[in-house]
Amino acid sequence: MTFQSSVGKLSSPLKDLVLSVTQNGSVHVGKQEKDEREVIEWIAKIEKGDLVNEPGLKTLDTQLVPHTYLVNNYLTAADVALYGALHPTISKLQPTQYFAHPTVTRYFDHIQACAPVRTVADALAPAFAPVVFDFKDAPRAERKVEAPKKKEKKEKAADTPAAGTSKAADPPAQAAAAPAEGQSQKKEKKEKKDAGDAGGKKKAAAPAKAAAPDDGEPVPSMIDLRVGHIVDIMKHPDADGLYVEQIDIGEETGPRTVVSGLVNYIPIEQMRNKYLVAVCNLKPANMRGVKSFAMVLCATSKDGKEGGIELIQPPANAKPGDRVYFEGAEFADATPVAQLNPKKKIFETIQPGFITLDSKEAAWVNPTTKSVHKIRTKEGVCVAPTLVGASLS
């Protein structure tokens, strides 16, 4: 089945909505063949009508928990089709009813606010008029806390920790830093074992492996900083202090979903359409049901959060995706690590040296040599709007 034939089975005005947003090129059918197949599959499900009844909404509420979009990490025709199919049902729900489906409500509100969707939906009014949700009075979500998993005996230290001790922590106010999770430790052990087997019978002729790019002392150039542009933002439906942003960092796959803990420090009006600096090679993290694929770099007042938090701003002529680097011959032309290994705590080691100078310029100060390395793009140095002596994270 082709995309056109699948959309052709939809009834108007839903069919008109999907065709309009895809024909003008503002929304993709799928940037890859695999994505296009998934889009077509979703539209076939939507055409059957089973997703918009009560059982379908319950199923969707579970399926959408880890997702911002249906396919991959960018807006596609499948999202437009689902939004349009849900509209007649969602628009008639009372607060108690749509609060019963918090993830569907969050998803629907996000898609209806996306500029390409809103433009066409307004042109087809009143069929797809904006639906206003009363998020202020939303009940707090009740979450089950899973019992901590038992560690393997060989991983336990001599001092056994108290049973029930949890390592979970709330996300930092500045941004959605990735948690220290992952499975790289076994891989590293295997690589070390393979390297030490040079005298074995089967591996005697194998050449030595190149050192991993994050081996050695952590240096700031391992961190992948890029210019980002907030193209969409909403409050997280399940967390009062979090924003969910769509940030364009110049990638062909579209904007990245980023969760930032800035609600209590920067009003949403001051976040919209902002250019910023994003940390792009942290491990993705689930933040209250929404996966975050980067971190927003912010300056926190030397007097603490109460003294103010500001977005670090790139130079005026910077564009999404522009490389942000550290001045200095040893850093300026270095290539960042593909993804920071949370076990090595590279960002955490470097972060204490991040600061804003008296000029409000962002910089990293080497704790050993005290040399100053400003954070910049090819267009100029990145700055905090007002904060001096602020820490960056």
TrEMBL record:
Keywords for this protein: Cytoplasm, Protein biosynthesis, RNA-binding, tRNA-binding
Subcellular localization, as worded in the UniProt entry: Cytoplasm
A matching Pfam family: tRNA_bind
Domain TRNA-binding: 219-325
Region (Disordered): 142-220
Cellular component GO terms held in the UniProt record: methionyl glutamyl tRNA synthetase complex
Biased segments, Basic and acidic residues type: 142-158, 184-200
InterPro entries noted in UniProt: Arc1-like_N (IPR053836), Glutathione-S-Trfase_C-like (IPR010987), Glutathione-S-Trfase_C_sf (IPR036282), NA-bd_OB-fold (IPR012340), tRNA-bd_dom (IPR002547), Tyrosine-tRNA_ligase_regulator (IPR051270)
Single annotated GO MF: tRNA binding
Residue stretches of biased makeup (Low complexity): 168-180
Example of a GO biological process term: translation
Domain GST C-terminal residue range list: 1-145
PANTHER family: AMINOACYL TRNA SYNTHASE COMPLEX-INTERACTING MULTIFUNCTIONAL PROTEIN 1, TRNA-AMINOACYLATION COFACTOR ARC1 FAMILY MEMBER
Protein name: Nucleic acid-binding protein
Organism: Mycena alexandri
Lineage start: Eukaryota, Fungi, Dikarya, Basidiomycota, Agaricomycotina
